[in-house]
Gram-positive cocci surface proteins LPxTG domain-containing protein
Amino acid sequence: MTLRPISPFVGVLLLTLGLVGLFARPAAAADWTVAPAETSFGSGRQDFRYTLNPGGSQVDAVAVFNNGTAPLALTLRASDGITLSRTTVTVAAGDTADVPFTLALPRDAHPGDRLGGIVATGGGSEATVPVRLRVGGPLTPSLAVEDVQVDYSGGDAVVAYVVRNTGNAVLSAQPTVSVSGPFGRWATRSGRLPDTPALLPGRTWKGTARVPGVTPAGRLSAIVELLPLVTDAAGSVAPLPPVKRTGHAIAMPWLLVLAVLVVLAGAVVLVRRRSRAAVGRSHRPATRTIKLR
């Protein structure tokens, strides 16, 4: 399995592109499934979760369930740092096989969150069990907002932005978006926005928000604010200081501009007429009244 590094810690449990999007559903094929085996960690687990210090190791097992009516042959592979006791397994119909494995960290492993997995392939299907790891040491959770773009049309502003995980811990965030005119006047906020997905270190996510009822006041300012949410080893979620970024766009109040132009044009016409009338009076010949005695 080819893994993409997300820090200088290369060679242990990094994000595999093939794993993205698989974690919200069971690791199942048509007639077989793979899942964490029942061990001292308990039963009914949906994924593997560990917290290890650099140089540490963990032994566990993955279970293969054959729900079909014929023997099942599967090939197993795993992220770097995970050593499987075997890479092929044959399971009788209606039976289950446990495959032990060992996860080992190098002594120079950098602290932070990692994501990998164990992949089973067979019968034209593939299923993955995610492995989530937190390497002990200082955590520096951090998010950044980038590339804020504003598009105004018909009274609504659509704000697009990019969220980047710049720290070493998995983070999600609560976003809020507002749009205002010059000097913060006529500010309008978006409705309640869904939280961002959990982002691994180094990953990005593109978000959009529609802000209705925006006053076209010339130069618009869109502010995207994120409240980062970090999950500790015990599963508790805590907020971090918010981060924000501003983008700009031009939205001219064309009806108002047109009205002002009409008024100005009328004023110019009126001034010219009065000026011509004054010039005409100044060029009239002078007349003298002669009184007859």
